[in-house]
């Protein structure tokens, strides 16, 4: 009887261990490995290289600073972004952001942001037809936060806008101006952008974006 029991144990115990490992949902440790795993849910929209897809309003995000990606994901979670009825891309993005750090998982946001930041930065081609010369004057105000070179300033929560799609920049300026973004309580930096956007009409927006792209 004992011999038979030992045989059963030797036969089935390895299989039980393998089954338990297969069912183990423990995430990889915080960092690049987990970030790469999490990014698999981002890639269908943003692309494997995070170069974006304008046809579905998914911007290029590869190579953006880790702090900025983290801040935007937390902004979606907090409802600063992706809760307005006119923000269709944001409405698609917010549920994805809410899956991060869900339950007792900590470090998801930091991990996927670290992975995105590690990817090569892309500088998407221009799609608008603004006047860079005319936009130079308007950019003086932008430069106080985003820098004369458009490379941003983490202390002022200002991203490197030279890396962003021009169509995305235009959409976000219009969103700030209309109150789709920057109008919710607690969104301090969004409110700053909203105030600055109010002085720009659509043509001025395209012009200042053309100037931003000339800084590349």
Draw up the topology in text.
Blueprint (H helix, E strand, L loop, with lengths): L1 H21 L9 H8 L3 H4 L19 H13 L9 H11 L9 H11 L13 H15 L19 H13 L9 H10 L4 H13 L2
Helix pairs in contact: 2-6, 4-5, 4-6, 7-10, 8-9, 8-10
Q: What features would you describe in this structure?
A:
There is one protein chain. By secondary structure, the chain is mainly alpha-helical. It contains ten helices and no strands.
Give me a quick take on this structure.
This protein is 55% helix and 0% strand. It has ten helices and no strands.
Regions with pLDDT < 50 over 5+ consecutive residues?
Answer: 2-24
Please give the number of β-strands: 0
Largest sheet: none
| SS-derived structural category | mainly alpha
Helical content class: 55-70%
Number of helices: 10
- The CATH class assignment of the largest domain is Mainly Alpha
In the CATH classification, which architecture of the largest domain applies?
Orthogonal Bundle
Taking all residues together, what is the mean pLDDT?
90
CATH third-tier fold name of the largest domain:
Cytochrome Bc1 Complex, Chain D, domain 2
Principal-axis shape equals globular
Tally of structural domains: 2
The CATH superfamily of the largest domain is Cytochrome c-like domain
The H-and-E topology, N to C, reads as HHHHHHHHHH
Instruction: Report the radius of gyration as a whole number of Å.
Output: 22 Å
Approximately how much beta-strand content do the residues carry?
under 5%
Give the N-to-C terminal Cα separation: 78 Å
